[in-house]
Amino acid sequence: MSQFESLRIQCQDGYPLSARFYAQQSQHAKPLPVLICPATGITKQFYDSYATWLAEQGYDVLVFDFRGIGESLYGPLKKSTASIVQWGQLDIPAAIEALLAKTQAQQVILLGHSAGGQLLGIVPNYEKVAKVVAVSGSTGHIKNLKGRTKLLAPVMFKLIFPLARHTLGYGPTNAIGMGEDLPKDVAREWAQFCSKPGYIINALGKTVQQDFHQQIHCPITAVWSSDDEIATESNVKDLLRLYPNASTHMIELKPKMTGHKTIGHMSMFKRSHQNLWPEIEAQLQL
Q: What is the mean pLDDT of residues 115-141?
């Protein structure tokens, strides 16, 4: 049964984020808490079952909604000024500090799903992250996509998003089954960052002035599935190469070998795939 405390996190610029804190429920408490950073357009509710399970394993867990998403959206979506750069420079740092304050720990383990595991290189308080586990983590470079997504992404990035920016005022991803509709600048940056290798490094010198990729030394593990159309092997490698001074590790899961028809980009956190949860949890250990 899910048990959590609702929190409001204050970012450095004053923006409030909606969050959930799951206190550890085991006699054998783990030394460091886990911060779950969501994928693009995915709300904190999606991670409820996994966060509850982690708490039962002895972890204190915090999961939050990025600004402009879920309960961290205030007012009409078309008026949201949220951006992916703000997620990395403001939201994740605030969530780290909130979790440390709540637990009195010195560092957190960052469990990032997709975009949630792509942004550490622009997080100012990166030194407070002891380890990163990037589930379905990659740069999402459009040329390395597979399957239906390889066909859909160019249409979404080059046609739907630019038109919708001026007609709707937001990125209409919900209608095509890709999470919540996105603030217009999130949609624009997503398209820009995925158009070239390196994702967030495409913002350096433009909307991002501070780059911490070289300074990051904590271990980074990417866990992805062989049938993921976004986090393909090439795109996972493209993400890990951004951290030349970190110890990086790749773990590929294959659906048939784990008893599933599919895993893809989203299923690792679903109850239907809970036999994969211990595999992810094993990577959280220092």
A: 98
Q: Scan for tokens 């990025």, then name that residue.
A: 66
Crossing angle of helices 277-284/48-56, nearest 10°?
60
Q: Which of 151, 150, 120 is nearest to 232 (CA)?
A: 150
Q: Give the mean pLDDT of 241-267.
A: 97
- Mind listing the pLDDT tens digit for each residue in 56-72? 999 999 999 999 999 99
Checking if the pLDDT of 1 tops 90, the result is no
Q: Which residues, at least 6 apart from 215, have a Cβ–Cβ distance to it below 8 Å? A: 126, 245
Q: For the sheet containing 129-135, what is the strand order? A: 5-10, 16-22, 61-64, 34-37, 108-113, 129-135, 220-225, 248-253
Task: Write out pLDDT tens, residues 209-220.
Answer: 999 999 999 999
pTM: 0.97
What would the pLDDT profile of 141-158 be if each residue is shown by its tens digit? 999 999 999 999 999 999
The angle at the Cα of 260, spanning 254 to 266, to the nearest 5 degrees, equals 75
219 burial type by CB count under 10 A (0-12 exposed, 13-18 middle, 19+ buried): middle
* One-letter amino acid of 208: V
Task: Provide the total of helices (H) and of strands (E) in the chain, helices listed first.
Answer: 8, 10
Give the CATH number for residue 203.
Answer: 3.40.50.1820
Three-state SS sequence of 97-129: HHHHHHHCCCCEEEEEEHHHHCCHHHCCCHHHE
The residue type of 147 is G
Beta bridge partners of 111: 36, 133
Q: Which range marks the domain in which residue 137 is found? A: 5-284
